[in-house]
UniProtKB/TrEMBL annotation:
UniProt keyword terms in alphabetical order: DNA-binding, Transcription, Transcription regulation
SUPFAM superfamilies named in the record: Winged helix' DNA-binding domain
GO molecular function: DNA binding; DNA-binding transcription factor activity
Name used for this protein in its record: Transcriptional regulator, GntR family
InterPro entries recorded: Tscrpt_reg_HTH_GntR, WH-like_DNA-bd_sf, WH_DNA-bd_sf
Source organism, top-level taxon: Bacteria
Boundaries of every HTH gntR-type domain copy: 7-75
Gene3D superfamilies cross-referenced by the UniProt entry: 1.10.287.100, Winged helix-like DNA-binding domain superfamily/Winged helix DNA-binding domain
The keyword Transcription regulation is assigned to this record: yes
Keyword hit for Oxidoreductase: no
Pfam families: GntR
Length: 126
């Protein structure tokens, strides 16, 4: 995983875990990788992964079964969508709008590029 310098690593790992949940790789009630397993996979300190898991637990995305591990909460995907949607609408969308206005990009062109991106990168959800 390539980390960006403008955002805390634990938040970037939280986004990675969240994306795996939203893509269905880890379904509600599934056990997710242990702190140690994910730290090895991402080549980070286990304390950083633990901070990520605590953050996601506070967001009610995952929960801990003491002695067994962390699991995706039944409402985890909905919590992720709500959190990420709010963040996107408040932070990213205004910048996006500013850029398309300044670059004179039409909504038709945006729609075409969006559809191309989805068909190339993701299977459509039913």
């Amino acid at each position: 995983m390539e980390f960006r310098s403008n955002e805390a690593i634990y938040l970037q790992i939280a986004a990675y875990v969240s994306e795996n949940i939203l893509l269905g790789k880890w379904a509600p009630e599934d056990k997710i990788p242990s702190v140690r397993e994910l730290a090895v996979e991402l080549e980070v300190n286990p304390n950083t992964v633990m901070r990520t898991y605590e953050f996601l637990q506070n967001q009610e995305v995952i929960y801990n079964k003491r002695g067994i591990g962390f699991f995706v909460a039944p409402t985890g995907p909905k919590k992720i969508i709500a959190y990420r949607k709010e963040t996107f609408l408040q932070q990213d969308l205004p910048e996006f709008f500013r850029n398309i206005f300044l670059l004179e990009i039409g909504l038709e062109e945006i729609q075409e590029k969006y559809e191309q991106f989805v068909s190339t990168n993701y299977e459509l959800k039913n």
